Predict the 3D structure of the following.
Amino acid sequence: MPSKTDSNHSKTQALRVEGTLNTAPEKVSDPKFLQSDFFDPRDLVQVKYEMLRRVFAENASVTDATASMESRGRRTIRPRRISTRGDRGVGAQEASG
């Protein structure tokens, strides 16, 4: 059985290959990402999804939603653009501009 360290390395490699590795996971300070094994601050798509979920499901402002989810040095999300493009707006292409 692979160790947790091996599993973490494998996931990091997979995220890197897919272009969805958050290069600054230590900047994610949201409690969900700090207190749960499910939420992974290295997973850029998961971080961006949680920001969007807060805006749409909890009616949080974009500023509030991004405050604890800084990723890749960029704290912007575009809810209007993403709502018309679907999940294509959440991944690496959106993060790179």
